[in-house]
């Protein structure tokens, strides 16, 4: 199995995964979306809210503010404190305070966290606009959870993959009169395949236009795909960097494979 990095930044990544099968590729995709543990606001203790938002609306907005996740926290279900009804301990929860008076816009960066390592991933997320005399004062309690339970814990967004397209061309004396273009400008063929580079093929979305045109003009052009090579693209909500998200998703898949292997050994 090989990985070739195409694009890599803190919040997004694109890479080619080769030498595997769709089951493993989809396992990585699902792990990034649903199985990587993250911190998110689950409970809100409101002391004063005279803004235009109802308490429930304000709570929903706060729940979707991504928080940088520190690996020292554990889900409440596996914490030694035996948390009940949301009352946990410093190992499974972190508190963030918010106390702002208008007139001004309240941003995610106005939170004061009890743990400096846990902060909103983006300080400029607007929460509510306060007018003169309005105030929001609350305590938000964040817990570790999984995207499969609620979208607030979904660390990976826009995670997807496709088979790597392949363009096959056989030389023919009439190719000079055949020019084929696609909407993504992935394929442009004249007399040769010199400009059918890997980068071009990565753009291919297999729309079928090239196939329809080639059937009429040049039957030697064929767009297929490599069944064992996948082009991944992903974005992180900010809880983790894109690199951390990929590695943690791989750890999840590895851990489940090991667990399954142990179960089979006990049978």
Describe what is shown at a glance:
By secondary structure, the chain is an alpha+beta fold.
The CATH homologous superfamily of the largest domain corresponds to DNA-directed RNA polymerase, insert domain
Radius of gyration: 25 Å
The total strand number stands at 12
- Whole-number count of domains: 2
Largest sheet: 4 strands, antiparallel
CATH class category label of the largest domain = Mainly Beta
Helix content: 10-25%
Q: How are the strands of the biggest sheet laid out side by side?
A: 1-2-12-9
Structural class: alpha+beta
Overall body shape: flat
| Low-confidence regions | 189-199
Instruction: Look up the CATH topology of the largest domain.
Output: RNA Polymerase Alpha Subunit, Chain A, domain 2
Strand content: 25-35%
The appropriate CATH architecture of the largest domain is Beta Complex
Distance between the termini: 30 Å
Pfam families: RNA_pol_A_bac, RNA_pol_L
Subcellular location: Cytoplasm
Family: Belongs to the archaeal Rpo3/eukaryotic RPB3 RNA polymerase subunit family.
Enzyme class: transferase
Secondary-structure topology with pairs:
Elements: E1 2-8, E2 12-18, H1 22-35, E3 38-49, H2 55-63, E4 93-101, E5 104-107, E6 112-113, E7 126-130, E8 135-145, E9 156-169, E10 180-181, E11 188-189, H3 198-203, H4 209-217, E12 221-236, H5 242-266
Helix pairs in contact: 1-5
């Amino acid at each position: 199995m090989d990985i070739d990095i195409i694009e890599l930044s803190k919040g997004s990544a694109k890479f080619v995964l080769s030498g595997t099968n769709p089951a493993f590729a989809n396992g990585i995709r699902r792990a990034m979306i649903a199985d990587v543990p993250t911190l998110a606001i689950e409970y809100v203790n409101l002391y004063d809210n005279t803004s235009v938002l109802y308490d429930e609306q304000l709570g929903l907005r706060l729940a979707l503010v991504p928080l940088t996740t520190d690996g020292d926290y554990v889900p409440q279900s596996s914490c030694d404190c035996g948390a009940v009804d949301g009352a946990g301990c410093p190992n499974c929860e972190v508190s963030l305070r918010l106390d702002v008076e208008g007139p001004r816009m309240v941003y995610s960066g106005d939170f004061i966290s009890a743990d400096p390592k846990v902060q909103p991933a983006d300080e400029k997320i607007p929460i509510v606009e306060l007018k003169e005399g309005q105030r929001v004062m609350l305590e938000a309690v964040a817990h570790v959870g999984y995207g499969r339970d609620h979208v607030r814990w979904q660390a990976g967004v826009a995670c997807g993959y496709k088979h790597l397209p392949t363009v096959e061309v056989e030389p023919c004396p009439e190719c000079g009169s055949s020019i084929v273009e696609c909407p993504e400008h992935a394929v442009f063929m004249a007399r040769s395949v010199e400009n059918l580079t890997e980068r071009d093929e990565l753009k291919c979305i297999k729309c079928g236009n090239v196939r329809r045109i080639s059937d009429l003009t040049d039957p030697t052009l064929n767009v297929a795909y490599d069944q064992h090579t996948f082009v991944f693209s992903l974005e992180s909500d900010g809880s983790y960097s894109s690199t951390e998200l990929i590695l943690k998703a791989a750890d999840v898949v590895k851990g489940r494979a090991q667990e399954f292997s142990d179960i089979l050994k006990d049978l």
